[in-house]
């Protein structure tokens, strides 16, 4: 897991776009006076979507807006790996390294990143990629997997092998599209490989197995709605 600390090179200042400033003003109004700090995660996320990463001047500006100590904003930004503390590439690759993915080959995916992209948490020479090992991304059943974030969104790529992953990165570098989701042709979404072996009776889903309320022991009629 990479160290969670801000980049050495920081911009001199941060300013919201007019659209994002209006968005921030609207969010603060949703909370009672004195509770503005509840906006800190949405503000950080919005700022990251604007700039691509979270700088110290951005954290300072958010602290001023929300009338909270700067260190509290810093604590949140450095705790969650969803926040980028340094500039990232056009494709920001986050490799899940938690136990299910590790047991299924995430270390081999890290090796691909080191070979194809370079050092962890550094932007590649062409500006296309950066990568980071992160904690659980919640797709354990399709391990190993990565999340790739771009300005257009964040997508999961699952059931990866080193060969599939390296070929995928090469296609992205060439500007080609890559299928989102599982790379296993035998799997549909998060189902087991192959045909389903349980809960396959259609009667389970058409309502015919549900007993009428009146037939249930000690059932009482519902009170009329007023």
Your description of this structure?
Helix 3 (56-65) crosses helix 4 (70-79) and helix 6 runs parallel beside helix 7 (162-173). 23% of the residues are buried. It is flat, with a radius of gyration of 23 Å. It is built from 7 helices and 5 strands, in the order H-H-H-H-E-H-H-E-E-E-H-E. The chain is of the alpha/beta class. 31% of the residues lie in helices and 11% in strands. Among the domains are: 18-79, NADH-quinone oxidoreductase subunit E (Arc Repressor Mutant, subunit A, Orthogonal Bundle); 91-182, Glutaredoxin, CATH 3.40.30.10.
In short:
This protein has helices spanning 18-28, 40-51, 56-65, 70-79, 99-103, 106-116, 162-173; strands spanning 91-96, 129-134, 146-150, 153-158, 181-182.
């Amino acid at each position: 897991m990479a160290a969670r600390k801000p980049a050495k090179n920081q911009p001199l200042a941060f300013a919201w776009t007019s659209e994002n400033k209006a968005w921030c003003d609207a969010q603060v109004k949703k909370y009672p006076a004195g509770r503005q700090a509840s906006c800190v995660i949405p503000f950080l996320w919005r700022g990251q979507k604007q700039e691509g990463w979270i700088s110290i001047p951005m954290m300072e500006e958010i602290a001023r807006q929300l009338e909270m100590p700067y260190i509290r904003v810093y604590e949140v930004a450095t705790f969650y790996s969803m926040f980028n503390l340094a500039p990232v590439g056009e494709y920001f690759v986050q490799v899940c390294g938690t136990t299910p993915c590790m047991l299924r080959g995430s270390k081999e995916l890290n090796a691909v990143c080191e070979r194809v992209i370079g050092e962890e948490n550094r932007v590649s020479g062409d500006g296309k990629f950066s990568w980071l090992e992160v904690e659980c991304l919640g797709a354990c059943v399709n391990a190993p997997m990565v999340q790739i974030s771009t300005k257009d969104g964040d997508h999961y790529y699952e059931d990866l092998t080193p060969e599939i992953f390296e070929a995928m990165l090469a296609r992205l570098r060439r500007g080609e599209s890559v299928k989102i989701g599982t790379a296993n042709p035998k799997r549909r979404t998060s189902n087991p490989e192959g045909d389903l072996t349980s809960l396959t009776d259609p009667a389970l889903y058409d309502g015919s197995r549900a007993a009428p309320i009146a037939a249930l022991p000690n059932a009482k009629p519902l009170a009329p709605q007023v």
